[in-house]
Amino acid sequence: MTGTTGDGDVMDDKPIHGGEPLPDDAPTTMMDDATRLLNPSTSSGDEAETAPPAAEPTPTADHTPTTEPVEATDTPDPMSDTLHPAMATSEPEGEPADRPTATVSAGDVYAGRYRLEQQLAQRGGTLTWRAFDQKLSRSVLVHVLAADDPRTPDVLDAARKAAFATDSRFLRVLDAVVGENPGEPSLVVCEFAPGESVEKLLRQGPLSALEAAWVARELADAMQSMHAEGLFHQRINPDTVIITATGNVKIVGFLIEAAMYPDADEGTLAWSEREAADVIAIGKVLYASLVTRWPTAREQLLGDDGEPRRSWGLPAAPVDGRGWLTPRQVRSGVSPALDIICDQILSDAPRHNEMPLRTANQITHALSKVLGTADGAADLERRMRYPVVPAEDSEAVWETTGQMAVQDPMTSTDPFTPVPRPDGQASHGQRSHGATTATPAHAVAAASPATPSAPPPRPRPRAAAARSSRPPRRRWLTILVALVALVLLISLIRVAMHKDDSGGGLLGGDEAGQVLQVASVADFDPEGDGGNGQENPDQAKLATDGNPATAWTSVVYLNDAKLGKLKPGVGLVVDLGERKKVGTVKLTLKGSPTAVQLRVPKDSATDKAPTGSQKDWTTVASLPSAGTSVELKPEQSVESRYLLVYVTSLPKVSGNKYQAGIAEIEVQS
Q1: Residue 226: how many CB atoms within 10 A of its CB?
Q2: Does residue 597 belong to any structural domain of this protein?
Q3: Number of domains in the chain
Q4: Contact 64, 85 (CB under 8 A)
Q5: How far apart are CA 94 and CA 76, in angstroms?
Q6: Quick check: is 167 in a domain?
Q7: What confidence tens digit (pLDDT) does each residue in 228-269 have?
Q8: Strand pairing category for 520-524 and 638-649
Q9: pLDDT at 322
Q10: Which residues of 380-394 are buried (b: 16+ CB within 10 A; e: fewer)?
Q11: Among residues 343, 371, 399, which one ends one of the domains?
């Protein structure tokens, strides 16, 4: 039976100002295992200060959700660091150690399609495996629950409810399988989405203002529709927010985690309290992304040993009499607009008489005003491809005063501060902005050679000096212009010769411009390019019905005109019935701008249209920003039975939604 991705409801700690800490039995959170399979994750040395003893890492260091341990205090901290579940020697604190565990092994096949391949983690009686979907030939992530596990009905029910979260920014649950035979385990099958958690990215240092605002806006925008339906995450944190290899944001653990590791008090929380937990959590992720500090409740700043407590690998945010210091008070260079938004979210009484932000919709609008048309996905993708190497850790000194830990903001070190060069100049890529660097006297003395200076070089002849001072790129510019002129001349000669051979027409004959009959048309969305064959194939015939009011349309994509960065393109395959000479293809499109191409099979003699990948086609004409009326003309004469009208960038239909539409296709000889 089919379910969906989900996450549960655990109440985050409230703001310092007037908020109450969580109950002692507050559960810890866990991130979906699929999100870190590209990069192994191990526990840091800082985490070991507060985490329980850990065993040696398993042979597979794939990332699995992290769980924060609870100190043996009267008020547990749900935001403290822990070891990776796959590396823990015992059950996480707060989780029953006697829960039944399913007995499975690699190679087992369930529901006739899911073959277990590698165990990634075991936590609280739940096994997490990487599996292979034999029906759709793809990797998936499987949570295995024992047949006699009392949580199974609630977990499967949560998976079904999470099916409502169809936004691509949620990690989807693909299937929920009930064990049919006695002793057979039940499964929750999740999407496999490799990437890095924000927690791991923050180990490199803070995100840029664009990246941090983009991540927080994506979280709020995705959650606002769920809040409207009465569904809440309540476990948003740096470990449950994933950045994929393409820079997209993925939210993991929607409804499923709360069902796997329930909290008895969650059922008593009001709608407004659940929503407030999500809103505050989004604000904390934004705060941590800007300053690599985690807003921790005042009562949980210090551990039993008197040392500062860390959460998600981050030290606690410094506090004053009003609560957490704002990001600009912690780290210089933070955007003033984002500093205000953080305070509006996390403070009961925002500074400077600003209005508080209490809903995901309000956060979305506030961050959208700051971002404008900027897109942080490209920057995040670059960060994923080329990780930032952090500077040597220079942790600020913490001073303990009573129950409050105070940090001097001026001691906070920016890991990205450029290191001055030995010669006193700014490091490469950094402007001096008119400032000069004073050189100490002892440095000047050390730089002065003890031996006499060498004699000056003999002056070169004036002519030689003039030749050497000539900018070398001018010579290349001259060569380039000559080459362009030569190519243009050759092209004109070939065109003139072709006209003479064909009787005055570029395509020759009296049939040039004749409308060719289309035998059939089909949608093009191959699995080899990430498609699923569901680009409205039943509408394909509308593109050649002679009625511009009807059209074939693609499915709607979110956030990016390039099909949400999910696939290279989609389109329609036109069958002319037999090989014919093609001169012009006229298109009537819906919306603009649209990037559209005309392609023919690489094998011109094929009697079957290639449907495996767009790589099997050759582009003969293209327009990167077409309007609603388009003419695609191949530069050279083309003969083919099959034509592919291929769209690589979609026009915007509303907000962050993009969709292509082709109303009419007319092929002329």
Answers
A1: 23
A2: yes
A3: 2
A4: yes
A5: 10
A6: yes
A7: 999 998 889 998 899 999 999 999 889 888 788 787 777 778
A8: unpaired
A9: 81
A10: bbebbeeeeeeeeee
A11: 371
